[in-house]
Amino acid sequence: MPTSAAPPWTSPAPPRASARAPARGPGSLGLRRLAGLGLVLGLGLWGGTGCGTNNLGSKLAPPDPSATDALGQTITCTNTSTVAEPYVVDLRGADRSHLEAVMSEGIAVVRYDCDGLEVLRGCTVGSAVDPYTFVGVSMKEDQVQIDTIDQLRANLPASAVQLEGEVTSGAAIDIGLVMVGRKSIRDDMVAREDLKGPGCEGATHFVRSAIVGAFAVEKGTQGKARAAAEIFGAGAAAGSEANRRVANRDGKPEDCNNAKPGDSAPPEQCRAAITIELYPIAEERPAVAQGDDEGSGESSPPEVEALEAKCPPGFVRAGGKCTPPQQVASFQCAPMDFEQCTQQCERGNGPSCYNLGVMLRSGGSGRERQPELAQQRFLAACKADDGPAKACTAASFELSRAKQWKPYAEVLQRGCDRGDSAACDTLGYTLLRGRDELTAAPERGVALLERACGMGRSSSCRSLAINLVDLHLDEPRGLRMLELGCERGEANECVDLAMIHRMGRSAAGKRPERALEHDRRACDLGNTSACGRAGKELVEGKAPIKRDLRTGVALLERGCPTPEPGARFISLSSQACTTLAGLYQAGKGGGTAKDAVAVLERGCSDHRRFTCVELSAIHAKGAKGLKKDPAKAEQILRRACDDKDVSSCTALGKQLEAVDQGIARAFYEDACTRTRFPPLCRSSEKLGGKGLPPPS
Fold first, then answer.
1. What are phi and psi of 472, to 5 degrees?
2. What pLDDT score does 284 carry?
3. DSSP code per residue over 159-214
4. Helix, strand, or coil here: 219?
5. How many CB atoms lie within 10 A of CB 149?
């Protein structure tokens, strides 16, 4: 049977005495994830006891907990439908084997709620064909001590019930860790409809990734620290009755020493799952909403987002575990809590310094942006032992703006080696072509993009494949990667193939028919821009594509659909909306001028390029069954321009130039300041106005 457990956090009660969480200064070992020193190791030299054991470990074991001792909870479970990352070092035997077997074949599905954690049997993700991909990171030794019931239930939910008695009366659970990499999947969403099998009842989350390496779990003593190596070496006490219920281990630390950042497989005796990252299962899969993605192969800008704790509500992350904040002296601050992040950063918490940097860079809530101070926080967090890898990526922004390419590459490499896919992606793309004195290194760039792809960053997989084709590094491999993705149901990969064949970017040259085939496949998968391109080609019928008005109109309608009551939001295709409106306005495709207006209104409401301009033009000129309405035409452009639609700003500016160049100049200046769109700024300068303002 799957391992089941008590609630990860239950029963409100007063906090435990301070002996459970002694005050520690910022430089204390307690803030460096050092755990409590375990029981004295015995070699069976003592006589027997009333319990029938003859081990020193048993003699020194704390007594069984009383009902009062068990009331160490302070937080009630209220919500588990969030991203979480519990330890699974307590999984044993068949349960651990099952988790590892499922992850070798597909996506693991679990039940994670107020009753604990259970890896489900007989439940798979129907759409999954890719196994978890391993990518090595810089090896890290760590140690964690679980010394309250709150911590036990939040961090070891799979067996919290069985282990409750091990964190009372001064006892604790010590965990020694050696982490060498992470196994990840590309999917960042699984919907209820994707689940297959009879065992899916109660499924709440899927395993997005897992940190792997080696671990040892031993009984310990609260407030006494020992290093990971000591915990791994504590096997002499494994036979004591006190330790038997707790002790568990998998992997060999000495084997982990052979691991290197970027490895595609962990060492044979260093591949045990240590933590699993759980993402909630979506009740329904949202419609695909790529409006105008054309697969350029450029690196996606790394997101500078605050770090979430990945802990249950009411818990914070500190010392490698989730814990109530009152039980620790320093912890990872809550995103966007400026005062808390400032306080925790001053106490030396690396993740808090990163979160503080995010707020200093962006400003907001009445605070001015402070990019220089933000950069100091990012660099400090990047260098800190407990600093997040994302801090290195964030620090690279200012370095690139200053064209400091050597430190730029160094911080990104550090971030990549510590496991940030965005750092690998950014540095990889940069090295494909080089920057100033940063010499191009295509082979290294490809290797870094492969690492980012292996970490589950889908955009990196696409960037890798596209650049293998465009830079003629390995065209067959790049095309094969995209074809496999398209066959797997990834609409973006189908779009990438369509663009390569349409533009003739491969050795085979332009292949319009193959491009149309891939766009139609992407359209079937929900990509509205692909529907627009395919539909336009069929209604135009330029050789070698044969004209097919009926099919083309049907595709255009799918690219610019009429929303149904209660329907999920879909991003529309500008090309589909404008082409379909043009047909209707001309009396083709079974539509009228009024239908054309309805189509363009949908596109304009969705902020699709040129749809507002076309809608304005119809009202300005009139059409069959529609009167001219110049005032409404201007109003449409002004509203769209206020929403930073640059095509509408450009069209309105040209109209104003024909009436009054002074008014047009003032308009262009304002539009340039708001949108920073170079053509609008040049129009302002042409009329004697101000140009592009300096970056803020």
1. 55, 40
2. 84
3. GHHHHGGGGSTTEEEEEEEEEEEEEE-S----BGGGEESTT-TT--EEEEEEEEEE
4. strand
5. 28
Burial class (CB in 10 A: 0-12, 13-18, 19+), 560: buried
Question: Minimal CA–CA distance to 169: which of 74, 58, 38, 62?
Answer: 62
* DSSP assignment string, 185-198: -S----BGGGEEST
> What's the CA gap between 577 and 582, in Å, rounded?
9
Q: From CA 209, how far away is CA 421, in angstroms rounded?
A: 13
Per-residue pLDDT tens digits for 203-239: 999 999 999 999 999 999 998 888 999 999 876 444 5
Residue 249 pairs in a beta bridge with 216
Token reading at 576? 């589909």
Report the SS3 class of residue 479.
helix
| Token reading at 218 | 């031993």
Cα–Cα distance for residue pair 125/5, rounded to 1 Å = 24
Compute how many other C-beta atoms are within 10 angstroms of the C-beta atom of residue 362. Answer: 16
- In this prediction the pTM is 0.79
C-alpha torsion angle, residues 146, 151, 152, 158 (rounded to 10): -120
Residue 570 contacts residue 529 (beta carbons within 8 Å)? no
Q: What is the pLDDT of residues 4-18, one digit of tens each?
A: 443 333 333 333 333
Ranges of the chain with pLDDT below 70: 1-74, 127-130, 235-244, 286-303, 564-570, 695-696
All domains in the chain, ordered by first residue: 28-280 (no CATH), 297-304+327-452 (1.25.40.10), 528-631 (1.25.40.10), 644-696 (no CATH)
d(CA 579, CA 611): 10
- Rounded CA separation 632/188 (Å): 44
